[in-house]
Amino acid sequence: MTAIVITQHHAQVFEVGKDDLHTTRVIDIDISKPMAHNEVLLRVDKFALTANNISYGIAGDTLGYWRFFPSNDPQHWGRLPVMGYAEVIKSKNDQILVGERVWGFMPMATHLIIVAGNVTQHGFSDVNPCREGLSPIYNYFDRVGANPFYREQNEDYDILLRGLFTTSWLVDDFMFDNHYFDAKQYLITSASSKTSIALAYCIKQRGDRPAIGITSEVNKAFVESLGCYDKVISYQQICELDSAIPSILVDMAGGKTTLASIHHHLGSRLTYSCRIGATHHNDIDITQAGVESHLPGASPTFFFAPTQLKKRSKDWGTTETMKQMNIALLRYIDFCKSNIKTKHIHGLNQVNDDFQAVLTGCADASVGLIVNPNSVSN
Fold it and tell me: Which residues pair with 80 in a beta bridge?
């Protein structure tokens, strides 16, 4: 099977129902109208689809994710943000040239029009008014030609892993920076998710604390084979954990049942409860703050990566911080190449089956999904 690149400017976007992520559609978008000053038209070459993107949809308006790429029918439909590579095919900004390749946050679409601002040698931002108040880190596009850590052969793994690795690297750094809240070990739920694997890898590289991975029985063998975790247990074995050991919980699953089970089992020995992901989509209530306040142990706290990134950039300088993260990412990509395969999906109309598998937690944890929206299989 080979892929045929679509050359005409027929633009589409994949949308999901805000009230029911299982409901999806692919619709046409208009990119033919005259462009305004500073507008730039990007042709999306490839993007990654992971459980992390589903988490954006679950958080939705609570954390502003629907505001990045508003739908024409924003009451009912949303456009999930993804990490991808794109090419500039039209530009009304004199500093940004047609043919440039960029990396950044984009919708599940064939094309994207942005309003370029804050242009530097290394990148630029989308300063579209709809993004006002959103974290600047998500508005930024890297100019690939100016990135010394770019490797063409790493592109698929880069978009699959860079965003979530950055989060995991910052979680590990945050815990180290806070002396692990006096805990002696990590507990990491949804241990087969790519964000969890990245965190376990970072923890293993630092070597200060052991990490216990908690996963489904079906994924246990795969998680054990990675060698990142010091121990792997199933959700049914939570009650067998040593409740006398002070622990940090990093909750990537997000389910009420698992969260409550760990809190009640460890009680005051749970010294920090860090919430990040939402892979257990069917057991989530994003407004459950009142319930969480009554859980024993440390109060569950959402981790916001840009906050720790800002702190480290102030401590070390932005250049040194980014250098350390990128060197670590290159090592992690090499590790993942022997553990995670990639699967390419050609065309937005072919995305739904894999999207539903990721949404329901049925996707193969050892496979990374890469979507080429502007190509079709023959």
Answer: none
In angstroms, the CA 370 to CA 48 distance is 5
Cβ(294)–Cβ(317) below 8 Å: no
DSSP state of 189: S
275 and 215 both lie in a single domain: yes
Confidence of residue 254 (pLDDT cuts 50, 70, 90): confident
Question: Which strand (E) or helix (H) includes residue 213?
Answer: strand 211-215
Q: Which two tokens stand for residue 106?
A: 């984009």
Element containing residue 348 per DSSP (H, E) = none
Distance in angstroms (rounded) separating the CA atoms of residues 91 and 113: 10
The CA–CA distances, whole Å, from 7 to 4, 89, 373, 375, 377 equal 9, 11, 12, 9, 14
Place of tokens 């679509």: 6
CATH for 7: 3.90.180.10
In the chain, the amino acid numbered 130 is C
- What pLDDT, on a 0 to 100 scale, did the predictor assign at position 281? 44
Which of 306, 326, 349 marks a domain boundary? 306
The CATH number of residue 175's host domain is 3.40.50.720
232 contacts 224 by C-beta, under 8 angstroms: yes
pLDDT in tens, 107-148: 999 999 999 999 999 999 999 998 888 888 889 999 999 999
The token pair that represents 252 in the structure block: 């990537």
The residue whose two tokens read 């569950």 is: 300
Helix (H, G, I), strand (E, B) or coil at 105: strand
Report pTM: 0.85
Show the CA angle centred on residue 55, arms to residues 51 and 59, nearest 5°: 175
Sign of the Cα torsion 172, 176, 181, 182 reads: positive
**CA angle, 171 then 268 then 185, to 5°:** 40
